[in-house]
Write a structure and sequence with these properties.
By secondary structure, the protein is α/β, with parallel strands linked by helices. It has four helices and seven strands, in the order E-E-E-H-E-H-E-H-E-E-H. The longest helix has 17 residues. It binds zinc ion.
Length: 144
């Protein structure tokens, strides 16, 4: 039997089961018909965060940031370009810690930007401080 993966839709947050080899094929969501990968990070809030982290078979890299943070804003374009490079092996997401203070508190985010990688609902790696695109992609790939 072909291997399958659950991909959570970045638009309506419905879980979609796909054959692993079809992930990069421009697949769309069975529920809302949006592309499952858009080549850009998605913004998560308290509800959508858990839907993605808990259900996704694709590791999710989360950028915890805030609008007032200069290094966060400087890293944003690199993070966006990294999404193009890392999808569909990884999903890239952003959490605005100013709006989502409960999430920031739950994960003990003390400095921003902080990047955290989640696999199967668990945090498996964390890196504080801004990174350029190449270092970011290297760091994420190194985590497997
Ligand atoms: Zn959808």
């Amino acid at each position: 039997m072909a291997e399958s993966r659950i991909v959570v839709c970045p638009h309506c947050h419905a879980p979609n089961r796909l054959p692993a080899e079809r992930l990069g094929d421009g697949a769309t969501c069975g529920k809302c018909k949006s592309p499952l990968f858009r080549g850009e990070p998605l913004a998560l809030d308290g509800d959508s965060f858990d839907r993605h982290i808990a259900r996704s078979d694709i590791p999710v890299l989360v950028d915890f940031w805030a609008p007032w943070c200069g290094p966060c804003r400087s890293m944003a374009p690199a993070f966006a370009r990294a999404a193009k490079q890392l999808e569909p092996d990884f999903r890239l997401a952003k959490v605005n810690t100013e709006e989502e203070q409960a999430l920031a508190a739950r994960f003990g985010i003390r400095s921003i930007p902080t990047l955290a990688l989640f696999r199967n609902g668990r945090e498996v790696a964390r890196q504080a401080g801004a990174m350029d695109q190449a270092s970011l992609v290297r760091w994420v790939r190194r985590q497997g």
